[in-house]
């Protein structure tokens, strides 16, 4: 087992993305990592994504940009590990990669399983599949694939408590991410009660509610800027789309690592990672959210204990280093 591995990651490390955090951590661990130097056409926006999906629907045998890149890199580099992050590779391409000298092929899927296109991860050739949804892991195992539950994580180098005097989000409920229907409706319910909101993320869709359009900061925050906003807010609201089952998104770990007061949907997956009431606050209704906010305003010492406990748990168990050490051990590449 080599102490320094050659690792191929067929995706682009946009700032604070899943790929960025994984590549950053692998390099910190001393490994030689190659990743794509630019976004693929499909990843450049919703129009490009739609065009790409139509094209590949008409020409299903055409290799994806990630598959072409991985094959080209494998020819002259002979990587020890192909690590695909929310990227699907077909069986025949995985077989070609093995023939070109790739030692181990691993998939780590960080999206809801419903976001898979075509066959998704249903391909022979994966040595292991890691996925954040327990039901999906069981379904993959049922058809003979080596799959395990593995959550996303936080990067303590930038997902950490950063206090800024006079930050504009002090006293607001901070929400970051895409504004799909469910998140918009939830945010609008809070806006109707007069709750101060600080909304961040990609530009909201044209069909957004008035509350989203008027209170969106029109900024996509990453790394330390995200940490400053999450830490400054009265609380950080974490919700997921209707397509997401009993799984956690990356913000579940980032908010806690940053020291934000996390209000997260009440689902059983939370208890696998954090202690409700002591490290995070789980909600099942808008009324519960409002009750938590009212108490947070009145009892800052109560919120401080929860924030600090969330940071401690994250740093001790839920960093990208923890996850990657586990993956490399499970694949037999490191002790």
Fold and architecture overview:
It is a single chain. With 335 residues, the protein is α/β, with parallel strands linked by helices. It folds into 2 domains: 6-153 and 319-330, Rossmann fold (3-Layer(aba) Sandwich); 173-317, Rossmann fold. Helices cover 41% and strands 13% of the residues. It has a 6-stranded parallel β-sheet with strand order 2-1-3-4-5-6, with helices on both faces. It has a 5-stranded parallel β-sheet with strand order 8-7-9-10-11, sandwiched between helices. α6 links the parallel β7 and β8 (197-200). The radius of gyration is 21 Å and the shape is globular. The mean pLDDT is 94.
Short description:
The chain has 335 residues and is of the alpha/beta class. Helices cover 41% and strands 13% of the residues.
Keywords summarizing the entry:
335 residues; alpha/beta; 11 strands; 13 helices; Rossmann fold; five-stranded parallel β-sheet
Question: What is this structure's SSE topology?
Answer:
Layout: E1 6-9, H1 18-28, E2 32-35, H2 46-58, H3 65-77, E3 81-85, H4 91-99, E4 104-109, E5 128-131, H5 134-142, E6 147-149, E7 173-176, H6 181-191, E8 197-200, H7 210-215, H8 223-232, E9 235-238, H9 250-258, E10 262-265, H10 268-273, E11 281-283, H11 286-298, H12 300-317, H13 320-330
């Amino acid at each position: 087992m080599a102490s320094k591995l050659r690792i191929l990651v067929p995706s682009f490390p946009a700032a604070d993305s899943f790929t960025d955090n994984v590549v950053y951590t692998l390099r910190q661990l001393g490994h030689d990592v190659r990743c794509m130097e630019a976004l693929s056409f499909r990843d450049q926006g919703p129009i490009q994504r739609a065009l790409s999906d139509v094209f590949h629907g008409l020409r299903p045998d055409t290799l994806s940009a990630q598959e072409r890149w991985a094959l080209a890199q494998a020819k002259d580099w002979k990587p020890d590990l192909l690590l695909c992050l929310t990227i699907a590779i077909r069986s025949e391409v995985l077989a070609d990669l093995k023939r070109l000298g790739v030692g181990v092929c691993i998939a780590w899927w960080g999206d809801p399983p419903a976001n898979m296109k075509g066959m998704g991860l249903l391909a022979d050739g994966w040595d292991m599949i890691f996925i954040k949804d327990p039901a999906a892991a069981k379904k993959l195992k049922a058809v003979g694939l080596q799959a395990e539950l593995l959550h996303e994580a936080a990067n303590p180098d930038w997902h950490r408590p950063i206090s800024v005097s006079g930050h504009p989000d002090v006293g607001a409920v901070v929400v970051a991410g895409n504004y799909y229907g469910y998140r918009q409706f939830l945010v609008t319910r809070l806006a109707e009660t007069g709750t101060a909101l600080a909304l961040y993320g990609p530009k909201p869709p044209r069909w957004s509610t008035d509350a989203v359009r008027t209170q969106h900061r029109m900024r996509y925050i990453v790394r330390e800027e995200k940490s400053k906003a999450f830490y400054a807010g009265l609380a950080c609201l974490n919700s997921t789309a209707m397509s997401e089952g009993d799984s956690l998104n990356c913000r579940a770990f980032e908010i806690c690592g940053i020291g934000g007061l996390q209000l997260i949907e009440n689902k059983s997956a939370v208890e696998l990672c954090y202690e409700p009431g002591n490290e995070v606050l789980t909600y099942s209704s808008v009324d519960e959210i409002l009750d938590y906010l009212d108490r947070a305003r009145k009892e800052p010492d109560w919120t401080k204990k929860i924030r600090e406990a969330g940071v401690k748990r994250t740093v001790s168990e839920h960093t990208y280093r923890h996850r990657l050490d586990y993956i490399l051990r499970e694949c037999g590449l490191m002790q």
